[in-house]
Amino acid sequence: MWVDWMISISRLPMLWTVVCFCLAGVLSSPHIAVAQKQAEEIQREQKLRDEALNTLDTLGDLLKSRVEQLAAIEELTNELKATKEEAIKKTVEEKIKAENANLVKLDKQISALTTAVTEEEANGDQNQKFNLQAELESLVQAFVKMMKDATENARQIESLRRSLITAEKQQELALRAVERLKFCCQWKTTSFRSPRH
After folding, report:
1. Are residues 5 and 48 in the same domain?
2. pTM score
3. CA separation for the pair 61, 107 (Å, rounded)
4. pLDDT at 45 over 50
5. Among 38, 30, 34, which Cα is nearest to 12's?
């Protein structure tokens, strides 16, 4: 029983590894979480792969049907050209119309399958009114934001340059003030030291 269970598990390599390590007591909780995520990722990939294969099978069947429809239309068209009787021509024309309608349905199915959007979903937006003003505003806002973001560094550099120039001017004024204070202090100290007679 235990061996049968392990053999059935061995078909799933990632789960087998997780089970073995869990049974051995080697894995800690973080390792188990990582292994579970990996197992979930493998399952998700397998599901996507299966869906893709089903889609390809369906698409193959639809394309095969389309080729058959085109062959039938071509055969009916040749029959129409060869026929001289009006009654038979009308019957053949009706068959061609029916085959063309079936071909249009197939094309819609193929389109919906390949784009994952049905015609109703694609045309659903046409029912909404188009607001040119709102669309232009959103485009302009996006453009202005993009330009603002693109020129952000240049604006910061210019702002820093202006701040540096202002700081240099203030430093120059401060140095002049210090020089004046030194001069004033020297003048006062020399004038107080001079002897008065």
Report:
1. yes
2. 0.43
3. 12
4. yes
5. 38
